[in-house]
Design a protein that fits this description.
This protein is mainly α. The protein has helices at residues 6-19, 21-36, 56-70, 72-90, 98-102, 109-137, 154-183, 188-201, 208-228, 232-253; strands at 45-47, 142-144. It has one domain.
Length: 259
């Protein structure tokens, strides 16, 4: 079995992005233009976790289905990476599993947790300041992390949603794309820049402040990955940030007058 050519890998990346975060980036740009041409951006609202039915258990079903199918592109990139590693094995160069290659496993839970929480603090605190600045400057919409009705399953679903976003973004935008960019012959700085720009672009529907903040986060995460070759700390950090935002707003946001 032959190692895929660069042309084939480029087509593969385009397909993966068209089915996942590249599609989100396109919709995000259109949504931003829609908001900019309808009212001042500061008057816009971006809701991250919406109710999809007024009937409790249908809403729960829709939420779980959305989470499940959103993870399918992750399985797709793992399949592509597995197929390539099997090709190398056939040619006589054995290597570990894809999960080991990406550092997406539980090989070093303690260190991953420490690094993950450290990154969450490093990114989370400045993000709050950037959001406040963006709102003051009128370049960021009001962000509502959760608009789910308060059912018994709301918090567990929000945690699952937080983990889903973390896994999808870190595995695809960092682990997978940096692997493919390297095979395109791109330099590390260019690969990091492309990964960070993509991350910022699919947050544009929230305004220019979140684009900048997420691009910076993407650059930091991608740089850390080039040093550690482990995606798990990034997933942990991202999941912590999302969980604090989603669950915190769901429990306390409206009471604090943020809704």
């Amino acid at each position: 079995m032959l190692v895929p050519s660069r042309r084939r890998l480029r087509i593969e990346v385009l397909i993966v992005l068209a089915l996942s975060l590249g599609q989100s980036a396109v919709y995000s740009v259109v949504q931003l233009l829609d908001k900019l041409t309808s009212a001042p951006l500061a008057q816009g609202t971006s809701t991250l976790n919406r109710s999809q039915s007024t009937r409790e258990y249908f809403d729960l079903t829709y939420q779980l289905l959305e989470i499940f199918f959103a993870l399918m592109p992750v399985l797709l990139v793992i399949y592509f990476l597995t197929d390539q590693r099997q090709s190398r094995t056939v040619t006589g160069h054995r290597s570990g599993s894809v999960f080991e290659k990406l550092g997406f496993n539980f090989a070093r839970p303690g260190r991953d947790l420490i690094q993950g929480f450290g990154l969450a603090v490093l990114i989370g605190l400045p993000s709050l300041g950037l959001y406040a600045a963006g709102r003051a400057l009128g370049i960021t919409t009001a962000i509502i992390p959760s608009a789910l009705d308060p059912y018994w399953w709301t918090v567990p679903v929000l945690i699952l949603s937080a983990v889903r976003h973390a896994v999808v973004e870190e595995v695809i935008v960092v682990g997978y794309l940096l692997d493919r960019f390297g095979k395109f012959g791109w330099s590390v700085p260019l690969s990091v820049l492309a990964s960070a720009t993509l991350r910022g672009s699919y947050h544009l529907y929230q305004g220019f402040g979140p684009f900048i903040g997420n691009a910076v986060m993407g650059a930091v995460f991608a740089w850390v990955y080039t040093k550690t070759r482990r995606v798990m700390p990034l997933v942990i950090a991202h999941a912590v940030l999302n969980t604090v935002a989603f669950v915190g707003f769901s429990l306390f946001g409206k009471a604090a007058g943020l809704g």
